[in-house]
Every structure is written in structure tokens, then in C-alpha cells.
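Researcher: Please predict.
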Amino acid sequence: MNTEITISVWLFLILAAISIFWVLERVLIPGTRWFLRRKINRAIDEINTRLDIRIKPFQLTKRQVLIDRLAYDPEVMEALEEKARRENIPREVVQNEIIGYAREIVPSFNAYLYFRIGYWLAKKVARLLYWVRIGLMNSDAFDEVDPDAAVVFVMNHRSNMDYILVSFLAAEKTTLSYAVGEWAKVWPLQTLIRALGAYFVRRKSGNPLYRRVLQRYIQMATKEGVCQAVFPEGGLSRDGKLNPPKLGVFDYMLRNFDPAADRDIVFIPVGINYDRALEDRSLLHELDPAAAKRSSWFVIRTTAGFVWRSLVLMALSRWQKFGYACVSFGNHLSARNYCNARNINFAMMGRAERFGAVEELANQLVADIEKLVPILPVPLVAAVMLNSREHWLSAIEVESAARKFIERLEQEQAPVYIPDDSRVESILYALETLTLRRFVEQSEGCYRAAAENIEILQYYANSLQHWGLSHEN
């Protein structure tokens, strides 16, 4: 039979769309997923062969699986029951709240993106802005770390560049999972940050249910051996000093830690310093209680202006780097060895006793970080100008005073990173930088701290405070 069947155009288009969708869903999309997954797995296998601290299976688990595991964790469910009973609300309402917290916290780590794109981008940005150096690093120390241990890098927080700088410098050794504040929860930045393994934290949240969900995620990641990076100060240093540690994250990691039965937790102290912190003025502004709060529009406008001026200077070949950015890695501290030496078990302690023990350990790590914070030209010259704030100094006198500081610091085995072969040039370059930024005033070939910018000089000098070089107003 040669019978023709006629259908309307709209019905033909619907049937064609269904056919295309079926081909995509059943053939092309699965094939593309298989190809990409195969490529990613090959990349992960290759990357793991050169990492000292390997990527853990927990990091490669599908995000939805981790969200479900966190949302239905027994301790989280216990908190759910408690809130539902206390506030007399349906369990389903509380469960939806918990799932929302879990989705907000849990990252979606992508090893291919981390190493093939994130590492490349971090290296380019860091080297574009600074002369990047590693001040101290005992490479053998990484070899001594138990490969099965949960490694935690503990560092001071000078700038938001810390995330980029340390990730780039540590990428040959391991991946890092950061706790990132709510400032980064903007599209598309938050998607990129999650893919790089970071998790979001509401730093000032007093919600006990949220804190329980966050606590359980950190405990899960630590138990599974995920390598993490922690800022013990809890946020950026507003005054340039290394501030006392906040104990929350440390307590989450250690409260159930049994040295005899659990995976070891190894803390590696890290010291960071810059010749110029990009946020220096903004951080000092936040310290002034009388200062008007800056709007989001002001921040966007200022940032855009800064980027535009920098691009113009690059186009005119007048761009100058912001000086040195230096990172020092210290010797590791094993939580297992620490507990055994003091005959303590965090998992068996009551809350008050445990917090005291956690505080002692955190203070020791902060003391180690203090000794690692690199001494760079700009902070050093800032300290020199503050010490002679009432007097005019020639460039030779500034260089001489800086040399005396360096000699004293080297006797105390401080981490001075001002190369011997270019020491004079580095000091004079730092003096020129402070003068161009109007932190130091110049007259007839002599220099003096600018009275209106004493606070910002103090901010930079405060990074050397523990060596006795910084003097308060």
C-alpha cells in the first residue's frame, strides 16, 4: 500500500523535538559524560602520582551524595528532633532548613578544574601582582607526614590573596579546602569556589542548628582525611597584627578525636606577608567605629576603578608589581603525638576541659605562625619610619636603620626575606613605594612618616610586632 499520511507542521515539530531530545538523553549526553569522566579520571590518576598528599575519595564523591549524608547524619537528625520539639514545628520544615544549610556548605570539588585551570589562574594572578617567594619550607617535612593523615594548614590571614597565593604554592604538594566567608556567595564566583573545593561559612551565625550542620561537615571531612586550610584568627586582620585564635573550627576537628583509634590530624603552620595588601585602606576603615559604612556600590566602583587604572598602566608599560609576597611553611605538629605526649584524649573530655586543651594547642600553633611570618622590605621600612616619626631622614639614614634592624633580626633567627645581593635596592624601593602611596612625605631629599597616614604605616609594621619593631601610636 502506498498510502500517504499527512500531519500538521506543529505536530511534526513536536515529534522532531522529542526525537532530538531522546537522542541527546540516550546517546550524546551519556557519551559526552563518559568521555569527560574518563578524561577527568586520567587527570586525577596522573595528578595523584606527583602529590605528596593525595586527593581523598571523599573529595571525589558526588556532591548530592555528600549533601544527603550530611543532612541525614545522626547528630544532625538529633538536632532536628530537638528543634522541632522545642519550637513545636513540623520535622519536615526543619529538615528542609537543614538541607538548605547542607547545600550551602558542601563543595563540589573538581580536580580537573582545580589543577588545570585553578592552578594556572592562581599562578598567573599571583605572579602578575607580586614577586612571589617561598621564605622557608622544609620539603622533607611533607615526606614525613603520614599519607593517611588529615593535613590542616594553619595560617595568618593578611589578605584575600592568601587563598590564591597558598593554593598556588601548595599545588605541587596537595589540594586545599578552605572555609570561605559569605562575601564570595555571588554568581558565578560561588560556583567556581565550590568547584575548587572550598566550603562556605556564615562566620557570625549564632544559629545552633546551622552550627551543628557546619560542625558535622568539618568533622566528616577531617575523618575522611581531606586536606584543609584554616585561618585561626577567624577573618582578615584589620590592624595587621596576628590576632588570638578563634577556637570553633579547631574544636570541631578535635572534639571527637581519639589518638588511639582515629586517623591522625597533622597541623602545618604557615606564615604569609605582603609588601602591599590590596585591602589595607578598607581594613583600617572598618576599625573606625565612627566611619560611615561603605555601600556595595562604593566597593564595586572602587574595585573597578583600581582594575581600570592598572590595565591602563599595563597598556602604557608603566605597570609595577606590588612588591614581594612571601609564604613560609613550618614544621608539622601531629595531634596524635601531641595527645600522647600530654596524655590527653579530646574525645573523652568535658566541654570546659576540652576547650582549655584546644586553646592551648591553638595558641602553640599561632606562636609557630608568628615565627614564620616573613619580614619584607615595606613592613621593615614602615617600622623604621615609625621609630623616627618626628625626624627627617635621608635615604642613606633609612637604609642604615633598616640594616641595623635586619642584623638584630637575623641574630634572633627571624625569617628575613630581603636578599643580601639586592638589600640596598630592596630597601630604597620600599621607601619609594611608601612615598608614592603618600604614607611617607619627602622634602629636599629627606623622608618622614606622613602624619595623616600613621595608622597605615602601623598596619604594615604590625606584622613585625612580635619582634619588637612596631610601636603603637
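Model: The first strand starts at residue 131 and ends at 134.
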